[in-house]
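Thread title: Can someone regenerate the structure for this chain?

I was given the following input by a collaborator and told the matching structure tokens would be attached. They weren't. Posting the sequence so someone can regenerate them.
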Amino acid sequence: MSATVKLNFIKVTKPREFVSEIHVVYREPVNAFHAEFWQEYAAVFDNIREWYGDVRAVVLSSSLPNVFCAGIDFEDLLDLKKSTSSDPARTAMVLRRYVLAFQAAMSSPERCPVPVIAAVHGVAYGLAVDLIAACDIRYAASNTRFSIKEVDVGLAPDIGTLARLRHISSNASLGAELAYTARTFSAEEAFNLGVVSRVVEGGMDEVVRESLSLAEEVARKSPVAVAGTKHLLIHARNHSVGENLEYTATWNASMLQTEDILKAVLSAKSKSQKDVNFEPIPTVIVPPALKPKL
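Best answer:
Regenerated them for you:
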């Protein structure tokens, strides 16, 4: 549980029942990601229930009032140019393993068994877009300034933005324009693009408050239904309609047997204003030898 987990770059709180808030807190004043940071980030999402108990929704936020994330740490980026080998093929093999590990870490909100809501504010450049693209829902404060910044530092985005942009946006032409030019765009333009589902007037406090309210609403639903919905949405994105329908039938052949359906239906019929007391999903205890070292 959380009492035994020492985190250096991430702060995890439970501000509402069944809701965890994951705060990005490292590297003032810009919250730049480096290797130890993103390894810890992935470990938290991959072990959210094992470490923090009955979590049914997560809000991802920054602890810095003016910056959500300003991208990758430049020192880490320059270190990638260094190699112990003079052979380009061997260097490429090492770089490929690094990029794959980095991609896997930034994909951890997608692997997280519960919905993850990104509460974005202030500066959200480069890696910030990779980071929020892997989240289920994205809210942005009206003061947010986005940029797909990678071309300005000499590389193509490679950690998730390009892979996910066409799935989370409604305007492929504008998405390409933003990726090619690295120009800054507003929260309102991100909303029009479909990258965020809501623009919240204000800054960090306001967008976090609204995101926590949404997370609380989600957390009141059946955890079986919500986890299944997330799993099936991701499956639908990666498969054809026919494949997803067949897979959903197989999935729900098991999930339709849950007692949560009866509880939810009886509550709806009684028009009760009380929340249904849904049983938590059992925690899978990961053997200590398999836990990441933090």
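Strands lie at 10-16, 19-24, 57-62, 67-69, 116-120, 123-125, 137-141, 145-147, 185-186, 198-200.
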